Amino acid sequence: MDQLPQMYFRGLAADQLPGDADYAGGILETMRCHNKSLPLWSLHRARLERSGVLDKAGLGDIERLTLELAADCPWPEAIARLRTGLVDGQRCWDLTLRPLDLTAEAQVGAKLFPCSTRLPIDSNSNQGCKTLLRNRYNAAKAELPEGQFLDGLMLDSAGRVIESLRCNILARFGRDWVTPALHRCGVHGVMRHWLLPHLHWQERDINLSELCGADELVLCNSVRGVLPVIEIIGYKNWAVGSETRRLQKLILDKLW
Predict the structure, then answer these.
(1) What is the per-residue DSSP string for 66-134?
(2) DSSP state of 22
(3) 3-state secondary structure of 173
(4) Which contiguous run of DSSP H or E holds residue 153?
(5) Cα separation of 169 and 192, whole Å?
(6) What is the pTM of this model?
(7) How far apart are CA 88 and CA 80, in angstroms?
(8) pLDDT tens, 31-85?
(9) Total Cβ atoms within 10 A of residue 2
(10) I need a labelling partner for 181 at 20 to 30 A (CA). Which of 125, 129, 132, 205 fits?
């Protein structure tokens, strides 16, 4: 089977696409395509709508064509990368589909490296959309040591835990799950949104020291689902817990 990415510009097949830097005000949605569908599309669509970069007709066109392209995806599991923004002053969008490499990370767990690069606090209300301005994330990624299944732990400029480089964070304390408050900065993740109705949870500020006191720690995103955290490097180690496995099974049962 052809493993090359499939690329589409405004819904039409393309040999190459603009770079992220070519998109002014660019917005990114990274989605899991499962058996020719996008199980979390309604939540991705809502975040696109919340970004305010698309009018109703434009969003409708993207929705129709994206779902059609997903239905023709040749791989049972794939990553769909949707971008929209202005290219040379014109509203554009593109979609890339590539096969999803299912690694052992969901079973063995991930390690978090606390990055010194910090996220700035948004003086306005944070819409929580994923933008193509990735400078700070790229700088943090460059800090990571060598190793398998590593992710960067991102704090804001005041030292509050926000997210990882690619996921939201959920920490279990007894029967309660805590997720960091994201009204100042950070991405309002689609998987996080989907999971919260299934948890006894609260959203609040949390620092690194408190995070290390959690009974279980997980990462979540719309492509990988729930990933156990087994270590914050230099701070704390965990075994993979039963509640983490319950969340993973819930996703398998309900989504894929």
Answers:
(1) HHHHHHT-SSSEEEEEEEEEEETTEEEEEEEEEE----THHHH-EEEEE-S--BPPPSS------BS--
(2) G
(3) strand
(4) strand 150-155
(5) 8
(6) 0.94
(7) 24
(8) 999 999 999 999 999 999 999 999 999 999 999 999 999 999 999 999 999 999 9
(9) 8
(10) 132
